[in-house]
Amino acid sequence: MNSILPKFLTDLLLVVYGLYNFSARYFREVFKPPYEFKETFRQFFEIGNKSLGLVGLTGFIIGFVLALQSIPMLSKFGAVSLIPTMISISIVREIGPVITGLICAGKIGSGIGAELGSMKVSEQIDAMEVSATNPFKFLVVTRITATTLMIPILIIYADTIALFGGFTALNIFTGQSLQLYFSTVFSALSFDDIIPSTIKTFFFGYAIGLVGSYQGYNASRGTESVGIAANVSVVWASLLVIILDMVAVQLTMIIY
Questions:
Q1: What's the rounded Cα separation, in Å, for the pair 86 and 104?
Q2: pTM of the model
Q3: Whether pLDDT at 3 is above 70
């Protein structure tokens, strides 16, 4: 037991230090020309458009189930009218960003890790270096930039679909109208709810892109490393999303 703990801590510190250096290199490269706009926009499409179905379905289920579970409990106290308020605040503040961030960590983080890992194993990254191309800027900077900017949009999209999911459940079981539902939703939300929850999603996107790119770009030789890079990307990206959310909640409580 004593010999396992130091090795675990050593491996943990090595990963944290590697992510720090990788992140520092990203900020050095992102502002230097040439700028890979074409590849960045392609990554926007790969990350955003191809995730709409999964993210939308997840958001709808979140809102529908949340309302469905709340109706029996609150109806006992005659507080069904409070369900739209509860749904809007809980989804916009926490449930929507965190669950969608975890879904993106699984789909997008693993995809980036596996893609770059396979390029590393097949020596495509080495070939780019030999041909005087900067593989870090072309492969890593574009992907991290795309996840940083696109995942917040996906989370806002998921939040919107989740609110419609909550309305669907309320309309089916209580007959509440669309106008009354969204009137209550928007009256319950304020900028203090929307702004902090939106800002933290940029950090979610950055963390997901950073971890996936780091694991794939630094994959070892051998076909097994591709699967390892994908799996580790999911674990670390999900962990960072939860940690960043915890920090964001504490900062929001201090500031507001």
A1: 25
A2: 0.91
A3: no
